[in-house]
Amino acid sequence: xxxxxxxxxxxxxxxxxxxxxxxxxxxxxxxxxxxxxxxxxxxxxxxxxxxxxxxxxxxxxxxxxxxxxxxxxxxxxxxxxxxxxxxxxxxxxxxxxxxxxxxxxxxxxxxxxxxxxxxxxxxxxxxxxxxxxxxxxxxxxxxxxxxxxxxxxxxxxxxxxxxxxxxxxxxxxxxxxxxxxxxxxxxxxxxxxxxxxxxxxxxxxxxxxxxxxxxxxxxxxxxxxxxxxxxxxxxxxxxxxxxxxxxxxxxxxxxxxxxxxxxxxxxxxxxxxxxxxxxxxxxxxxxxxxxxxxxxxxxxxxxxxxxxxxxxxxxxxxxxxxxxxxxxxxxxxxxxxxxxxxxxxxxxxxxxxxxxxxxxxxxxxxxxxxxxxxxxxxxxxxxxxxxxxxxx
Length: 392
Known about the structure:
The chain is an all-alpha fold. The protein contains 15 helices and no strands.
């Protein structure tokens, strides 16, 4: 992207579009949801077979879609309303139960996951209708999604009493129903406050990165303290820091600017694609990287297992590819360095599997860091402009 292109598409927005900000209740709410999502790491560690990765991706999608519904809802309604606040606190309790049961979601304890999940989704739709009751156009959009957004968790609940493969198959069908319904929704009266919407997702990413560091730290606490552990912790932390840099150096601000410059009728579909769909891929990348880092810390001098190498290459690769697709969706420009970084990370994980785990992870993290530093240098003029506008 050239600086000239940035001048037009990423210029500072009007002040009134910056007024809505993420509230304390929303941030508190997100902490519980991120705990649920990072429990997926535990699920992956317990079963690193291809089927295990697939089941973890399915659970991640279900939980993410539930959180995304609340993100859209709180962007549209008054969160300070007393009934809304009480309902969200009640939903948080439900999400906490979902998180606690998540590692056992594919066992006989599945109803302990599905029942609170269903309750949370019902509470979401109830407060959504309440919050937009005076906005006829937006209410029609919520009505369009209601059959899928209520039917899907009902399927999840009913299928939790079945054995596999029926349970897993029906849960996958339930998630597909919701994602297809969202894709078909178009605009349909949905409007967004760009600054709040982008900030909400950015905060979720940063909390997810923070939780990945917690997971890495817990793994390190169980290992004997020596020089190898110290080195592996530095490498693992460096990877999380590089992932933070890839999002928050200037692209988080650029996402906001690009959506704000869109005509209002185009904002909701673009926000759906960039945030509801592609940020799910970013979160999956964070989780996979945390899995690989935990495996490295446990045995830094040994080779990573096939599952560990997959988690490493796919984690960094998916994280970067999601940015590539998001940027193209927003401003129709290709992030060449990030494509190269994703390819390099995947190639290293496949071709250098014979190296010690710490060396392999260090190389992949180096590829990630090199890609984003080269990008930052190439886009230095646009980057400076965007950062200056954010500080103004």
